[in-house]
Amino acid sequence: MIARVVNTKCITVMEDKSRLICLENLVPINKEAGCMKVYFLEPNIEDDNPLFGVISIWENKNVLNNMKNSEKYHSLLQNLTPLVESVTDSVFLISSNI
């Protein structure tokens, strides 16, 4: 299994629009593509964390890549691009030896 962690820093005043797009589109796209679990992370200003995030758990990299190559995902990225200042995208192997 793998975990994908994506953090985004929104352009100031675009946070609400970005949140809405992610909750209404990104989370469902992940689920439709076969994501095992997906979590949407809200910014936490109290802890000086202005980032939105999505953590998704995937059976394997092929399933994740199929989602990343889908037309729905590319369309979503085009809609989010004007709202986002920066993005980090990391993939981790989940150890089964815990």
Describe the fold and architecture.
The chain has helices at 15-32, 61-68, 71-80; strands at residues 2-10, 37-41, 52-58, 84-93. It is built from three helices and four strands. The two termini are 13 Å apart. It has a four-stranded antiparallel sheet with strand order 2-3-1-4. The longest helix has 18 residues, at 15-32. 13% of the residues are buried. The chain is α+β, with helices and mostly antiparallel strands and 98 residues long.
Brief write-up:
The protein has one domain (2-93): 2-Layer Sandwich (Alpha-Beta Plaits), CATH 3.30.70.100. Helices cover 37% and strands 32% of the residues.
Using only C-alpha atoms, the radius of gyration works out to 14 Å
Indicate the mean pLDDT: 90
Q: Helical element count?
A: 3
Uncertain stretches of 5 or more adjacent residues: none
Strand content: 25-35%
Tell me the number of strands: 4
Q: What are the defining features of this structure?
A:
single chain; 98 residues; alpha+beta; Alpha-Beta Plaits; four-stranded antiparallel sheet; 3 helices; 37% helix
